Input
Amino acid sequence: MSANVDMKELYAALEETGKVLDRVEETGGSIKSVERNVRRMRGTLRTMMIHFEDLAALEGK
Amino acid sequence: MVEGNEYWNQPLETLDFDTLRELQLRKFRRVYQWVWDKSKLYRGKYEAAGLGRDSIQSWEDIAKVPLLTKDDYRCQGVDPFPYGDSLCVPIEEVTEFHQTSGTTGTPVYQPDTWADWEWWSECWATILWAQGFRPEDRIFIPFGYNIFVAYWAGHYACEKIGCEVVPGGVLGTRERLEKMRELKVNGFMATPTYVLGMAETAQKELGADPKEWGIEKILCAGEPGALISTTKARMEEAWGCGVRDHVGATEVGAWSFECRHRPGGLHVMESMFLVELLALDSDEPVTEPGIPGRIVITSFDRQAQPCVRFDTKDVSMWKDGGCECGRTWRILERGVHGRLDHITKVKGVLFSPVTVEEVVRSFPELEGEFEIVVSKKGDLDNIELTLEMPEVCSEEKQATLLDDLKSQLRFKTQLNFKIKPVEFGSMPRHQIKAKRFHDMRGK
Ligand SMILES: [Zn+2]
Output
């Protein structure tokens, strides 16, 4: 893959970020500000996940 | 050697052919199943065509998927209001509303989730980066954002890139120009008509030469002009910098762009969209370069109301060969050539209105507006071009100019135009989607 990026590693890190957001929401989701901001962050996170999900799956295939 | 800094997302923009096709097939299958699961509109269409949820296994299967047209959005206007069966998410997840301009029928309502909105700005960031927009830029947007999607995502993409973005809505043209000069902005985005109109206002009302303002980049959208070589040359001459094109649509997203290396057309953003060309008179795929086809687009990653095999009714053709930028995304030669319903036979000759713009803009003294009307007199087609004459023009000069124009038009279109000269400034100026072609036959 170009740009010398390990796609599997990158995608795993993004998934990890999703899990951290789950934890933030589980812990503080009753605070409206936390719940809504997590939702926005998930939108941004998804933008990267859709880029790299398939590249990670295709890497080394 | 192209540097990594050329790209917004190098891995995706430089994928090899086979991996890119495999990625597209995976993404197509995913969005197909998404709309199948979430939208009665799509599922109904697909079941009627004998397709199931798992019908997409190969490229041949994609060709079996029925096309989506503007007519399909007639399902809108009912619950979940106002999107009806085209909506693919719970209504409470929708955060953005826009609609199409309705120039070709009833407007389409377009919902987006927050993730979709991020996707919009990501697509635009890809475009702006490819055109040389960088974090150190100060960018002016001389447009009042509104119910139409135009330039909204351009604004957010500038933010994402890290540019300083100056919203120039509400202001009049003169005030916009004064603000651009005052703030020393180095780039802006507008329709080709408005780019030219602004230069004209700067010269005539401010007595200024916009070439001296330090503008380094202009993105065009909304009309085909930036890929019409004569219109592009005029804009570049007026502002003293490169002008690059981009094409998008409300229902589709921002799906193509001209990179800064002037590829002679539009790169298709193939990791986010599937763009297919279908033969003008059948649904057969066109994969060979140089053959016109109508553009059918799938947006892979939109959630609320993605389009799957949307028939844009626009026409283009694939370009042979790659681009200096190193992107592997294919190129549509000369961009969008016009709408299928505008490419029509006049007096038995195939006619595309874009050709008229090409000819008119090749006369440096013809800076004003123009309009083409095709009508019928008895059984005969009649084609008339109304156009503004130069502000200062002797009768003698006007006669020569019109003679030259008429013969150039005949040479390029094989048609005899009736030309109606009008006074400079007497026709309306458009800020977006100039509508210069009217076919009155059968109306
Ligand atoms: Zn290029």
About this structure: Residues B 259, 261, 263, 267, 323, 325, 327 surround zinc ion (CB under 6 Å). Chain B touches chain A at residues 4, 9-12, 14, 19, 22-23, 26-27, 113-115, 117-119, 122, 271, 300-301 (CB under 8 Å).
